[in-house]
Design a protein that fits this description.
It is a single chain. This protein is an alpha/beta fold and 281 residues long. It has one domain. The chain contains nine helices and ten strands.
Length: 281
C-alpha cells in the first residue's frame, strides 16, 4: 500500500507536524462521504492524493513505517490526512496495521477511520478487533461518525474514541479564500460564535458530550490541541465545511425526512431541539 510521508505539513489546520497521505484504495466506498463532499477530494490535497494513488509520489509501506519509527519519542503526527487505515476498501490489513502500530511506539498519532465496524459482518467484526488492539497498543484511531446518532452507535462499541460530522451551523462564520493566497478572516467574533452555538445541542442523543474542534472556531491547530490523539469519552465534532450542503445531505440519518432535523432519531427540528434545551437550562 502506497503512502507519502511529509516531515513538516504546510496545512494550516494541522500545523507544522509530520503528516501522511495513504492511497485512495484504502478508502471504503461505503463511506457516506466517498465521492460525496470528502474534503480530500478537492483542492491541493486532492492533487497530492492522486499523485500518491498513481504511484507518482511516496513510497512503500515499509519505508513509511521506517520514517515513523525514526520520529522522536512523544512526537505528535497525523496519519492519513487523505486516505484511511491500510487495506483495500472495507478491509483493514492486519499485517500492515501491526507494522504501523509497532513503528508508532512512543509517539502520539492522530488517525481516523471510516471503515465499517458495526454489525455482524465478518469484516466489521475483524475491523473492531484490529482497531481495539491498535488503540490498546497506543495507536489512537478515531471512529468517524456521520452524525451524532451514528456517533452513539460507534461509542457504544467501547473500542475507540469517536468523532462526528456536525451541521454547518456549529461553524464560526468566516470569509474564505479559495486558493489560500490570503488567510481566511473570521466574520464573527468568538463571543458572537459562542453565544449563537450555545443554543445548539451540546450532547448526542444518548447524552455524550460533544466538543467542537477548536480549529474550526479559533487559530488552534492539531499541533496545539492534540485532543484527537488521546483516548476520551467526549465526542469531538467537526462542522460540515467545504461543500457543506452536500456533506450535510449525505451524512444525514437516513430515516429523517428532508427539511427535518437529522441529529436525533425522534425527528425534532433544530428549532424544537433548541427550544427544549432552553426550557431545561
Amino acid at each position: 500500500m502506497k503512502n507519502h510521508f511529509i516531515p513538516v505539513s504546510q496545512n494550516a489546520k494541522t500545523g507544522p507536524i509530520p503528516v501522511s497521505i495513504t492511497e485512495r484504495a484504502s478508502c471504503w466506498p461505503g463511506c457516506a462521504l466517498y465521492e460525496n463532499g470528502c474534503y480530500a477530494e478537492t483542492g491541493a490535497l486532492a492533487m497530492h492524493w492522486r499523485r500518491v494513488s498513481n504511484g507518482l509520489a511516496g513510497g512503500s509501506w515499509a519505508e513509511f513505517c521506517a520514517r515513523i519509527a525514526a520520529l522522536k519519542p512523544g512526537r505528535l503526527w497525523r496519519y492519513a490526512q487523505a486516505g484511511d487505515l491500510p487495506g483495500c476498501g472495507a478491509v483493514i490489513d492486519d499485517t500492515l496495521l501491526q507494522m504501523l502500530v509497532a513503528a508508532n511506539a512512543g509517539k502520539r498519532v492522530i488517525a481516523f477511520t471510516h471503515k465499517p465496524v458495526l454489525g455482524d459482518d465478518p469484516v466489521a467484526a475483524e475491523n473492531r478487533r484490529l482497531i481495539a488492539a491498535a488503540v490498546e497498543a497506543g495507536f489512537i484511531v478515531n471512529l468517524s461518525a456521520n452524525n451524532p446518532v451514528h456517533a452513539d452507535e460507534l461509542a457504544a462499541l467501547g473500542i475507540a474514541p469517536v468523532v462526528t460530522v456536525l451541521t454547518h451551523a456549529y461553524a464560526r462564520s468566516a470569509i474564505r479564500h479559495r486558493f489560500k493566497r490570503h488567510k481566511d478572516v473570521w466574520s464573527e467574533t468568538t463571543g458572537e460564535w459562542r453565544d449563537r452555538t450555545a443554543l445548539l445541542p451540546q450532547h448526542t442523543p444518548a447524552g455524550r458530550r460533544i466538543a467542537v474542534c477548536p480549529a474550526t472556531y479559533s487559530d488552534a491547530t492539531c499541533k496545539s490541541c492534540g485532543a484527537c490523539a488521546r483516548s476520551r469519552d467526549v465526542v469531538i465534532g467537526f462542522p460540515a465545511h467545504g461543500a457543506w450542503r452536500q456533506v450535510e445531505a449525505v451524512t444525514a440519518a437516513r430515516d429523517v425526512p428532508v427539511d427535518e432535523g437529522w441529529a436525533f432519531r425522534d425527528h425534532r427540528t433544530m428549532a424544537e431541539v433548541i427550544a427544549a434545551e432552553a426550557q431545561t437550562a
